[in-house]
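Proteins fold. Shown next:

***
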Amino acid sequence: MDPHAWTGDERRLLTTLKTPALIQHWLDEEVRYDGGVHCLSPRRLMRERKGHCMEGALFAAAALRFHGQPPLLTDLGAVRDDDHVLALYRHGRYWGAIAKSNYASLRFREPVYRSLRELVMSYFEHYHNLEGEKTLRRYSSPMNLKRFDALHWMTSEEEVWEIPSAMGSLRFFSILPPGMARRLNLVDDRLRKAEKVGRVAD
């Protein structure tokens, strides 16, 4: 048996995740958020049921690919905060996203956004650090994970650090004009509390 092919159990699980919303639901309900220093393949995430945003995005991209979508990621770049990685999908001309996050609103997006920038901007008001600063500043061009197929990124038993390492070389686009960041307000306390619903303690 090819060790890099999906097993019967893996295929049965992936077969049930027929829509982006079902993939997101599985990530939310079955995978514990774990911000540790690791980069597990989708196979290992399915087995270990833990992961952070990069690992959730890798799994979502693999599940989307299983159902005929290209495996695309984008990196959201932040200041004084962690980056966040989304798995992208499209319905016709419109973009949507799937994500694993410790913040309630940095997860799923319906495919209603006419451009990648429009999709990214839907995260802006919710993207903040523990001090309440709005920290999202840029996003990358989409990265097609097919380029890592030789590494067997979907089924590897080794960690797949090559993928986050490669994201640093992508083209990034700023979302704020010069000087605007200094005028941003802090996130409202009610929104900060709402974002922590279901949060796993660091």
In short: The chain has one domain: 8-195. The first strand starts at residue 32 and ends at 33.
